[in-house]
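Tutorial handout. Part one gives the primary structure; part two gives the three-dimensional structure as tokens.
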Amino acid sequence: MLARLSIQNYAIIDELEIEFSNKLNIITGETGAGKSIIVGALGLILGTRADSAALVNKAKKCVIEGVFNTGNKKAVTSFLKENELDADDEIVVRREIATNGKSRAFINDTPVNLSQLQQLSFMLVDLHLQFDTLEVGESDFQREVVDALAGNADLLEEYQLVFRKWQFVTKECDELKNQKQQFDKEADYNRFQFIELDEAAFKENELEEIDAELKLLSNSEGIKEALGKVYFELSESESPVPQQLKVLVNQLAAYSTYHPQLPELLQRLTSVQLELQDIAGDVDRISSTINFDLEKIEQLNERLSLGYKLQKKHGVNSSADLLALHKELEEKLQAVLNIDNAIQQKEKEANSLFTKATEIAKKLSAKRTKQVNPLEENVNELLSQVGMPNAKLKVEIKVATLNIAGTDTIEFLFDANRSGQFQPVRKVASGGELSRLMLSIKSLVAASIDLPSLIFDEIDTGISGEAAKQVGIIMKDLAANRQVICITHQPQIAGKADAHFFVYKEIVNDAVKTNIRKLSTDERITTIAKMLSGEKPTAAAMENAREMLMN
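Part two.
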């Protein structure tokens, strides 16, 4: 509910503050006193576009602030959490218009954009302006009304869970089919590439090892010749190097006792001699393994040429890259084999969910259809009470394709003058008719839908007497469990208020300003009497006003 509304420097309002009742609040005042200005200011904190023309005093900014008590409403709490706003039972919504015309919005002192402000406002306030296209003409609202009366909340929630899952699985199935089409386009090419790599059958690091072996074989003759020379000098020459070292060792050994460092030197020479003998053996062994093999060189060149060709073709640089590509192609070909089975599984799951959703949708349709006649009868009776005896509402339900709300298209049709020509409400009903139609409908579903605060601007246009009294009674009943704010010219409606506010103009510093005050019981009697008989109410009008208030 809207607990408090504060307005500063908006149009001819200098500064005012209103503390509303949580039940029926009535706002009255002379024509032109500024009632619509207050509604316009309220609209700003509900997300309407700001206009710098509203700033009469250009020296300071305009500030409109509303304090709402949410009563832990789930939708509001979820919205605050999703938008990382402070969650509390009390929400402060503020709109500021700077002197340059730029506006800013705040929720609990946190800056928000206009879209966020509008989203929140829909959960907090239901504002009905006489010349607006009201939500009564919108299909979603019409369906919600029928569902509320049919008690479809739990069944609809179950249906929507199944429907969304069906949508999700259907999307997955479509994606698989698109993937299959892509696979089919690429399958032949992938298969050719795979077979090519599979027949090549390269092993890990094979190309790198072939390259090294080719370098060895290509230089085998030179290597073998060099090794032969080394071996000859170490083992087969007239004076092999190890043998020369042995002679030198023997010569030096005769004098080893005469110098302390000679034994160590002899040991080192002996080690070198033995090492050279071992080296000679290794040189001979290595030389025996190296042979120039032209046939093998040709084979390796062919293998390496194939590898380089495949590397260039696929834009890779190593044996490992070719092996990775081979594995990737194998997986793609395997996926082609597996995807048909996956599509069949998804289609089966989607069909099962579609069948289940259709069955639940039929139950929803049956319950909705059952409510059509009672809804038409009750609304038409209420329309007669509120001064529209010739107006009729007709509810039309047509079969539609499966959607988030079921398989029904619900349309409220309206005939204002018993012409027998029913047209969609949004096309034929006037502002006043729409307001009273909305009031009638919402009074029926108030117990079933968690309605926000309801604000009606001049719902009484074109009615008086008993019809106005009935509108007041309906509003009073509607306000029993939620806040209703109504701007009216009708004393019969004003008499039903739990809180009566009077809008008036006053001259402050030679300027006309709009102000508002909450009326006491005696002031209410006088104000209602003036609404009945004029500026100077008669005794009968005063008594009539007192009776309206007491009843």
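Part three, for discussion. The first helix runs from residue 35 to 45. Residues 24 and 497 are 5 Å apart (CA to CA).
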